[in-house]
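Please predict the structure of the following assembly.
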Amino acid sequence: MNPLELAQAGPGEAFTVTFDGRPLAALSGQTVAAALWTAGVTAWRSTRGGGRPRGVFCGIGVCFDCLVTVNGRANQRACLVPVRPGDVIRTQEGPGQDDD
Amino acid sequence: MTERAHVAVVGAGPAGLAGALTAAARGVRVTLVDGADQAGGQFYRQPARALGARRPEALHHQWHTWERLRDGVDRHIAAGRISHLTDHHVWCVQRESGSFAVHALRGPAQEEGVTVRADAVLLATGGYERVLPFPGWTLPGVVTAGGAQAMLKGGLVLPGGRVVVAGTGPLLLPVATGLDAAGARVAALVESADPRALLRHAPALAAEPGKLAEGAWYAGQLLRHKVRTLSRHIVVEAHGTDRLKVVTVAALRKDGRIRPGSARRIPCDTLAVGHGMLPHTDLAETLGCTLSEADGTAVRVDDEQRTDVSGVWAAGETTGIGGAALALAEGHIAGRSIAARLHGTAPDPRSWAAAARARTRLRTFFTALEAAYAPPAGWAERLTDDTVVCRCEEVTAGAVRTAAGSLGAGDLRTVKLLTRAGMGWCQGRMCAPAVAGLTGCPLTAGRRPFARPVPLGVLAGLPDD
C-alpha cells in the first residue's frame, strides 16, 4: 500500500522538473516539498550559520525550514508552493539569492 | 444601510466553516478568507484536486461531518451568500472607523495584496504544533507529527519508509495510524505521558465517551498493526549526519528523570514529533484583543465568542486548543452572535444551548487532557548546551541559558534581543515555548505586527489613512 493507492488517487500523467540539475518526476497537485519527498529527497537548504541541511519541518507554512529556490526565486516555502511542469528547483544556500 | 451586513471569516477550518454557515443562514453576507486552495483547514485537509483521489476519506475521521459542512457552504456560495477567497493569506486585520480591513496576500507566491472590508470579523485561525527541542531535532527526516500528517493528507506522500512517532498528546495516535495505513512502517509510538495521569483525570475524561472511544479505536488499530507503543518514554536524541538514521529512546522515571540503562536505539529514516498545540493569535494580537490570563497564549472570548475588541469574534483553536468538535460548537455560537449583533438585535443564548453545553463539556475534557499530556518535567534541563533551540537563527540552548543567567534577561523579548532567538523567519513561533521553558520566562504573546512576511511593494501600495 502507498498513499496514492490508499486514497485511490488518479493523478494526471507525471511531468518532469529538475532538482539541482537532476530530473525528477512530479504530479500535478503536489507541492514542491511533496514532489521532493516522492523522489526521496529530504534536504534542500543549507543554513546560513552552520551550513546545516534542512527540509520540511512543520509542513504547513509556519516554520520556514523548507525554503528553496524555484525558477530562480529564493526563499520559497516548498510546503506551500505547487510544483509545475519544468520547474527548476535548486538547493538554497544560506539566505538565498534570486537569480535575476 | 442598503447593503447587507458583512462579516469576514478568517480561516476555513471547522470553526470558520461553522461560523460562516451559521451567519450566512441568518442573512449575513460572508467572505471566507483562507490560505489553502480548498476549504477544510488542517483537520479536514484533503488531497489536492489534481491528484484525483476517489477515497479522500481514507485518511480522515468524521468525514460525514465534513461533507455536511462542505455541502452547506457550497449551497451558500451558489446562492451568493458566501464568497470563498482561496489562496488568500491574511497578514493583518486593521480596524477602521466602523469597519475592518482584512489584508491578504494572494496566490502561491503570496506577492499580490488584496484587501477585504467588512463590518465584523471572525478569527478562526486555528493552531500549530509545539515541538520542544532535543539534540538532533534539526536533522532532515525529523518532522512535526502534524506536518507529516498534513503532507500525507494533502500531497499523498510519506516522509520515509520507517517512522518513529514521538512526543506527547492525542494527535500522535491518528498520525501513527495514518502513516501506517499509508504504507510506512511505524517502528514505535513513543509517548512521554504516563497512562496513570489519564486515570487521575478519569471523571473529566469519562464525560466525553465519544472521544474516549475514538482514542480506543486508534489504540486498537496500533495493536492490530503491531505498532510498538512505549509510554513514559522520550526520544533523547536523533542521530545522523545529513539526515536521520537512528533515534535513541529512553524510559522516564516518575520524577521525570531518565531511568538509567533504559536507553535503546531504534533505526528509522523519519521521526514525526510533537508536544501538543498552540493557538494562532497573531491577527488577534495586532487588533488589540486580550489573550487569556491562564497562559497568555489564547484569545480570550466571552460566552458569545466575542473578543474584547468590538466587532471581532474568535472561535476554534485560536481561543484555546480543543479539537474539531469544540471548534464547530464555538463557530456555530459565533455565527449566531454575529448575525444577531449585525442585525442590531440581542442574541438569544437559548438558541445555541446545545452548542454551549458541548462547548463546556469539551473545554473541561481538553483541560484534563492537556494536564495528562503535559511535556515531561525536566525536558529543559536535559537539553545540551550545543542543541539548537531557534531553528531559524541557529541559537543554541547554551546561548539562551547565558542570556537568562549571567546576562539577566527576564522575558522572551530580552532573550531575543540578546541572542536573536525568535528573530528569524518564523518570528519565534517554533522556539518561543522552548526559550520560555529553558529560561523560566513566561510564554507571552509574540506581538508580531504582521502574521506573515509581506513584500515591501504591497505595504507601499496600501492607501494612506
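The domain at 12-90 of chain A is CATH 3.10.20.440 (Ubiquitin-like (UB roll)). The CA atoms of residues 67 and 77 of chain A lie 5 Å apart.
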